[in-house]
């Protein structure tokens, strides 16, 4: 998926990015942006790779903003780029080689057509079996058990974990937890009048404490602080 964040911000504002099991490649064409989670500056005209995120990242923006990115579905990055193991980039943010990133300033063809062709040319079929498993986890909103996955897809737990670390960058359990948390987060946004107990049962948590622990782990705050704050107004799973 291609995404773009653009505009002009007079006074410094923050955007909160939620935990995410996918890989993002991005280039900053506007003024520098500060990433508080990674304690780094997203510099002008620099390309970055963002690995799977296990915590929220608050980014500080001001001035002319023009950020372009490519978000890969979890498990799909290795169809286009070669990495020994994406576990090496989990929860990390670092510069990415320019020669492996499309020249988005190219004007000869429509941007989407050019980008599609760029990645079509890079596509390499592999024996990565994770996409159907990833789809099941996403569709269930993280309400699947490891045992259910291994049984349905005829894969051992050890092999499942090894392939998740290699092709996604995190363990199956971490990915399931992120999907369940993001579903709970979205449910808070969508149903502000619901009780915490309703959210607990709908999102597959064991109890109130289980939900609270996940919120503290991913955002640093309990659900009650989240409900009373503006976090939901300035947060996103992926910028578009």
From TrEMBL:
Alphabetical UniProt keywords: DNA-binding, Transcription, Transcription regulation
An annotated Gene Ontology molecular function: DNA-binding transcription factor activity
PROSITE patterns: HTH_ARAC_FAMILY_2
SUPFAM superfamilies for this protein: Homeodomain-like
Residue ranges annotated for the HTH araC/xylS-type domain, each copy included: 128-229
Pfam families attached to this UniProt entry: DUF6597 (PF20240), HTH_18 (PF12833)
PANTHER family, alphabetized: ARAC-FAMILY TRANSCRIPTIONAL REGULATOR (PTHR43280), HTH-TYPE TRANSCRIPTIONAL ACTIVATOR RHAS (PTHR43280:SF28)
Name of the protein: AraC family transcriptional regulator
Organism annotation: Lacibacter sediminis
């Amino acid at each position: 998926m291609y995404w773009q964040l653009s505009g002009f911000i007079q006074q410094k504002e923050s955007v909160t990015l939620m935990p995410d099991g996918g890989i993002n490649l991005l280039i900053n064409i506007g003024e520098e942006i500060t990433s508080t989670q990674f304690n780094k500056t997203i510099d002008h005209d620099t390309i970055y790779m963002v690995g799977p995120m296990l915590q929220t990242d608050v980014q500080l923006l001001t001035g002319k903003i023009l950020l372009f990115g490519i978000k890969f579905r979890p498990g799909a990055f290795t169809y286009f780029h070669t990495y020994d193991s994406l576990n090496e980039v989990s929860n990390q943010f670092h510069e990415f080689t320019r020669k492996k990133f499309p020249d988005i300033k190219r004007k000869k063809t429509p941007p989407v057509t050019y980008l599609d062709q760029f990645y079509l040319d890079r596509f390499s079929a592999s024996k990565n079996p994770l996409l159907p498993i990833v789809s099941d986890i996403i569709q269930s909103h993280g309400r699947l058990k490891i045992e259910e996955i291994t049984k349905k897809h005829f894969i051992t737990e050890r092999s499942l974990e090894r392939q998740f670390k290699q092709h996604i960058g995190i363990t199956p359990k971490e990915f399931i937890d992120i999907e369940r948390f993001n579903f709970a987060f979205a449910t808070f946004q969508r149903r502000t009048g619901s009780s915490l107990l309703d959210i607990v049962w709908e999102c597959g948590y064991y109890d109130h404490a289980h939900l609270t622990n996940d919120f503290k782990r991913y955002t640093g705050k309990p659900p009650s602080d989240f409900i009373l704050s503006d976090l939901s107004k300035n947060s996103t799973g992926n910028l578009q």
